[in-house]
Amino acid sequence: DDVVEFTGRHQAGIVTPAQDRLHFVALDVTTDSREELVAMLQAWTAAARRMTAGQDAGPLGAVGGEQFAPPDDTGEALGLSASRLTLTVGFGPTLFTADGRDRFGLADRRPEPLAELPSFANETIDPAISGGDLCIQACADDPQVAVHAVRNLVRIGAGVVTVRWSQLGFGRTSSTTTAQATPRNLMGFKDGTDNLKAENAGALDRFVWVADGDSGSDWLAGGSYLVTRRIRMHIEVWDSSTLDEQEQTIGRTKGAGAPLGQREEFDPVGFTARVDGGFAIPETSHVFLAHPTNSGTAILRRGYSFVDGSDGLGRLDAGLFFIAFQRDPETGFVQIQRNLRLDTLNEYIRHTSSAVFACPPGVRDDADWWGRALF
Ligand code: HEM
């Protein structure tokens, strides 16, 4: 019961009810050989098919193979269940062309929306933890299962890819179905209340899935664009602000998560002006600016909290590893992020990494593999 189906029209790990843990990894391809890249994607698909079903990465397993050969599974997930593991892959803009080179004959296959994100206010992007030719998003309810899956895919990719950066996350910060209770992020607020939800197929088709006729749809239809942003929270500053400031900043109450001026979490955000011309919810609050009424668009958020120790200056290195899926980055994340320029939440956060990937559609059957239609 804790197995998430690997095959389907869309990749798992997008509208799948958000699991508790994340291991995200971005990789660079180190070979110039298209054949080696294709062989690795086929091997990855086979291993992912097995691991998401709760099996070892290879058919011999951690202890069933030759005594004097490295095992085809690393073993740390022996005895653990599938834990709703999903593995989702994406292709970065640099896979198609980098430094004017077309290593894999893919340059004319790059969909127009798959381009480096523009720069924004309130960011200090570190290139060492940004970008990447490929990515794997591993989500599971058990952190060891997610880490095991990434470790084995990286092992299988030896000689073809190297890890560029990775991020562990805990405590999903979004709900992606109406059946899940809304979790809280590290600021203590419910996060994911007004997210796009799996049950809303019409909105997913409009805002999340690449459709026939979209740029690159010959191989990407049924897929989605993934944007990641590592967002550091100035936790200590936040913690010394008043409850009222915190609620005015988000635009919702901290307890129930209700829009300011309303009572319950799922009450509508109050965009009706009061007689004095103002709104119940501040016009510079996060929810006011991010809401579709104002931003004109919607995204599927699927982020995780992180605490990566402390920064040596007595501050927690903590925040939100923001993950969003959308049909087009320009009319999704970019449009909302631009609209958040005057967001009072910006006083408490700083974006430190950025990446964008095109996630191909789902693996259809036993013969199919990640990215087949692209190659
Ligand atoms: C809503 C927190 C960054 C887009 C919310 C809510 C919270 C929150 C508490 C209200 C509950 C909900 O509807 O989910 C945060 C924190 C962030 C952050 C702590 C940074 C550390 C971002 C970014 C974007 C974004 C970078 C996109 C560019 C949205 C959207 C909503 C939302 C679209 C729903 C608004 C609505 O329809 O009412 N966020 N957020 N958030 N956030 Fe964020």
Give unreliable regions as ranges. Answer: none
Taking Cα atoms only, what radius of gyration do you get, to the nearest Å?
21 Å
**Helix content, binned percent:** 10-25%
Largest sheet: 9 strands, antiparallel
End-to-end separation in angstroms reads 34 Å
The percent range for strand residues is: 15-25%
Keywords: Heme, Iron, Lyase, Metal-binding, Oxidoreductase, Peroxidase, Signal
GO molecular function: ferrochelatase activity; heme binding; metal ion binding; peroxidase activity
Domain Dyp-type peroxidase C-terminal: 182-363
Subcellular location: Cell envelope
Outline the structure in words.
The structure is a single chain. By secondary structure, the chain is α+β, with helices and mostly antiparallel strands. The chain has one domain (21-359). Helices cover 21% and strands 20% of the residues. The chain contains ten helices and nine strands. Strands 1, 2, 3, 4, 5, 6, 7, 8 and 9 form a nine-stranded antiparallel β-sheet that branches. β7 and β8 (316-326) form a beta hairpin. α1 (34-52) packs antiparallel against α3 (143-156). It is globular. The mean pLDDT is 96. Bound molecules: protoporphyrin IX containing FE (HEM). The site of protoporphyrin IX containing FE has 29 residues, from β5, α8, β8 and α10.
